[in-house]
Amino acid sequence: ERAAALAASTGPGATSDGHKVPLLANIGGPADVAAAVEAGAEGVGLFRTEFLFLDDSTRAPSEEKQVEAYRAVLEAFPEARVVVRVLDAGADKPLEFLTPAAEPNPALGVRGLRSLLENPEVLATQLAALSKAAEGLPVYLEVMAPMVADRTDAKAFAAACRAAGLRAKVGAMVEVPSAALRARSVLQEVEFLSLGTNDLAQYTFAADRQVGAVSRLQDPWQPALLDLVALSTEAAGAEGKSCGVCGEAASDPLLACVLTGLGVTSLSMGAASIPHVRATLGRYTLAQCERAAAAARAADTADEARAAASAVLGAR
Ligand code: PEP
Ligand code: MG
Fold first, then answer.
1. Is residue 246 a contact partner of residue 196, using CB atoms and an 8 Å limit?
2. β-pairing, 267-269 with 192-195?
3. Residue 10: what pLDDT?
4. pTM (two decimals)
5. For this structure, is 246 an active site residue?
6. Distance, CA 196 to ligand 1 centroid (Å)?
């Protein structure tokens, strides 16, 4: 019965009472496009552009090479949203030509947007390539920066996008607690937010995402993380802007319902998770998701939050 329900799960993501939550794919490059289309992704919510930079970590790929790769992705999603994240180098993804050699704490050092602001020519080339790749295509291009900490970061990124003549929505990832706490201020500079719950958990709990011994603190059901999600969606709602999730949290079907109840406007995940999330979300009303979200936030631990949400949703 469950397999049949999954197979029958097609169409746009929505609660049973029709509240739409677009289900988007996380991709790492053109090679992931087919699976995303196959899963019925309504677009791309996170295009991790790092893959292009990994062949040769001593220098950035040429603008031409970037245009080609971006175009291959953009062409696959006509009339759809494609959210491209500019290069997120450093910490768990070091690049020789960008990442400082000897930082005591790479996760707290020059990474993500910080690397790009230190190397503005790398950002300018990437934005120019994106701009050219999207030319003439009927795609809704959105471009976001990783590791935005505050309004100053968001402002610098938005300025770089304007300088590149980019015709795209400009957004900020919320992966640093300060950006969630002051989301309204970040939103003065950008048009949308996207919660990167993997890094947001890492920085909220001071728990390295690569260290198994602290994995308990990386659990996206942690109520403190849910509080930061709520702060972000409330700010976005107040500004009339969108706030999606593109971290691993979105791929847990029950948590996807809770995130919807917290006001998240889209969910982006690995393509393989889309059918299951779509089927689960379609079983509950928005009001049920909201009650599950409130119950989860009222809990004290991740396990209790999970159990409380399950109880509200009568999850099987
Ligand atoms: C995240 O941090 O949640 C995220 C989506 O980005 P990445 O996993 O690539 O750091
Ligand atoms: Mg991240």
1. yes
2. unpaired
3. 80
4. 0.96
5. yes
6. 5
